[in-house]
Design a protein that fits this description.
- It is a single chain.
- With 150 residues, the protein is an alpha+beta fold.
- Helix content is 39%, strand content 15%.
- The protein contains 3 helices and 6 strands; from the N terminus they run H-H-E-E-H-E-E-E-E.
- The strands form 2 sheets. Strands 3-4-5-6 form a 4-stranded antiparallel beta sheet, with helices on one face. Strands 1-2 form a two-stranded antiparallel sheet.
């Protein structure tokens, strides 16, 4: 009596390997651009942190009741002290390291440029540019996000 063996032929195995290779080649580019997505998320996270810092500083400023003050004491502020420099009457943190720089808890992973106070930029250290940043305006307290080049 002959016993018939069962299994895959060499041709069938090669066809399966070729099909898997084609699927991998078409699916791989979809997962390659994760660094750009990570930068976009980081910039959006920084923008949210900046907006929160402005809101907390203003709330603390108005809670003290002195609308002529130019500093507000914030526990947890970073830097040499806990005083955050603000604009009198509005309580919006200034566009300086002693203003918004102290109000936000951390800028780790970001390069901050305080040169222009109406456009303080927060760019990711790895891959940040003028088209991948969060900008802070100390006149209005507004934060804008640019992620077209992340």
């Amino acid at each position: 009596m002959k016993h018939q063996q069962s299994g895959f032929t060499l041709v069938e195995l090669v066809v399966v390997i070729v099909i898997l290779g084609i699927l991998a080649a078409t699916a791989l580019p979809r997962f390659i651009n994760l660094t750009g997505d990570a930068r976009i998320s980081a910039v959006n996270g920084m923008a949210g942190g900046l907006r929160s810092a402005v809101g907390v500083a203003q709330a603390r400023y108005f809670a003290t009741g002195d609308t002529t003050a130019t500093t507000v004491d914030m526990v947890g502020a970073t830097g040499a002290g806990t005083n955050v420099t603000v604009t009198a009457a509005s309580g919006i943190p200034t566009g300086a390291a002693t203003g918004i720089g102290r109000a936000i808890t951390s800028t780790d992973g970001f390069t901050v440029d305080y040169t222009t106070t109406t456009a303080v930029t927060f760019r990711p250290t790895n891959g940040g540019s003028a088209t991948c940043q969060a900008s802070y305006n100390d006149t209005t307290g507004a934060v804008t996000v640019t992620t077209t080049g992340c």
